[in-house]
UniProtKB/TrEMBL annotation:
This is DUF459 domain-containing protein. Residues 74-115, 374-404 are annotated as: Disordered. Pfam families: DUF459 (PF04311). It comes from the Bacteria. It comes from Rhizobium rhizophilum. InterPro entries: DUF459, SGNH_hydro_sf. Residues 99-108 have a biased composition (Low complexity). CDD domains: SGNH_hydrolase_peri2. Gene3D superfamilies: SGNH hydrolase (3.40.50.1110).
Length: 424
């Protein structure tokens, strides 16, 4: 067997032959072009990042291409445009926009006037609803220097748990201390519970319970009437729990009947916190008719507008008892602040001639029978149109120039003035 000998080729010649004849030559060129594009994009992104970020660390590309660390440039203090209302003005076909700088904060409301030393007092007693009522009355009479509202409410009190707080026993001492001009009572929101009497425990919503509770209401009303102060008893409002609302309606009838027996006044606030169908509302109209939130999230407490609306029903009755002291511009005149009375000089006062008044309907009552020194003409010389119609049977001629004035020529005059006609 003969042996086959293979000619040896150098490596450079083999690579050159592969580059010229290899079918992978286009793929290699595409890969080189893609690598170059990737490197260019990386450099561009890095340069953009350098422009946006003044301070950063050097990366691999910086080490390879020898880029230097950029110098930190502090940011410029750019003043933002002021926000304001934009107002457009149309002048012909050109529209110009003017930006108005925001106005300064509105001036703070002036403080309420100080209360007078002789101001009348309104005393509010009761439970947590009475506390809200007291806050509303303070806002109502805030601008009245002659009225001071004193709230002595106990949020957890009532007429059932007299062992916790006894209102009939504590009320006389409170009235003697405050010396109010009006007494406002609002109680009962905490009384929906078992009542303990000498005979035993009485369950709520039973006839014995309502009988015993009515006696306690009558006792408090009698004690309030004995203080010789005008008493205003405020009824319970509606609440979110339906059973609580139904109980409030029943309790209001007890309050009304007992306070009216002692000549007190009952104020019903029910309509202010229900809709047209009598259902409880959380949001309703305030004292100005604007929709606001009146009650808290629990449906029992009151918001600020709700307290003010609660006091709105009591304010009218309280002002009636307080009189002129509720006026914000009230000024009491005494010997120290009387205005100066200007009198006329003696020369001018002597020239004044005073005359007694004369009755226009019956001048003879003051001793005279004429007005302004004139003499009335006799009625016979000036017959009225009625007299002429009755006596002569015809009305007087209308004045010349009036629309009903018509000059009629008598028939005899027309016959005599007619032109004569020639006879054949």
């Amino acid at each position: 067997m003969g042996s086959r000998r293979t000619a040896f080729k150098p490596a450079a010649a083999t690579a050159k032959e592969w580059n010229l004849k290899s079918p992978h030559r286009p793929l290699a060129r595409f890969m080189c072009l893609g690598l170059a594009l990737m490197l260019g994009a990386t450099v561009f992104i890095a340069s953009t990042a350098e422009a946006q970020q003044p301070e950063r660390r050097r990366n691999l590309l910086d080490m390879l291409f020898g880029q230097r660390q950029p110098v930190y440039v502090p940011p410029q203090d750019v003043q933002r445009p002021r926000e304001g209302k934009v107002r457009k003005k149309n002048s012909g076909s050109v529209t110009t926009i003017q930006t108005r700088a925001p106005s300064t904060r509105a001036a703070a409301a002036p403080p309420p006037p100080p209360k007078l030393d002789t101001a009348k007092k309104v005393l509010v007693v009761g439970d947590f609803v009475a506390s809200a009522l007291g806050d509303g009355l303070k806002a109502a009479f805030e601008d009245s220097p002659g009225v001071v509202v004193e709230s002595r409410a106990n949020g957890s009190s009532g007429l059932v748990r007299d062992d916790f707080y006894d209102w009939p026993g504590a009320l006389p001492a409170i009235v003697a201390e405050i010396k109010p001009s009006v007494l406002v009572i609002q109680v009962g929101a905490n009384d929906r519970q078992q009542l303990v009497t000498a005979e035993g425990r009485l369950d709520f919503r039973t006839d014995p319970w309502f009988t015993a509770y009515g006696e306690r209401v009558a006792r408090l009303a009698t004690v309030a009437a004995e203080t010789r102060v005008p008493v205003i008893w405020v009824g319970l409002p509606a609440f979110r729990p339906q059973n609580m609302t139904a109980d409030a309606l029943r309790l209001n009838t007890i309050y009304r009947s007992n306070i009216e027996k002692v000549s007190g006044e009952f104020v019903d606030v029910w309509e202010g916190f229900v809709d047209q169908e009598g259902r409880f509302i959380v949001t309703g109209s305030d004292i100005n008719g604007q929709p606001v939130r009146l009650r808290g999230n629990d449906g029992i407490g009151f918001t600020g507008p709700g307290k003010r609306k609660l006091a709105f029903y009591v304010e009218k009755s309280a002002r009636r008892y307080l009189g002129d002291m509720t006026s914000p511009d009230l000024v009491r005149l005494d010997g120290s602040n009387l205005p100066e009375l200007l009198s006329l000089p003696p020369s001018e006062s002597k020239a004044i001639i005073t005359t007694p008044p004369i009755d226009l309907f019956d001048p003879e009552l003051d001793g005279a029978d004429e007005l302004l020194g004139g003499t009335l003409p006799p009625s016979s010389s000036f017959p009225t149109p009625r007299d002429q119609l009755v006596q002569n049977g015809r009305l007087p001629d209308p004045p010349v120039g009036r629309v009903d004035y018509v000059k009629r020529v008598p028939a005899t005059a027309a016959t005599t003035t007619a032109p004569a006609t020639a006879t054949p």
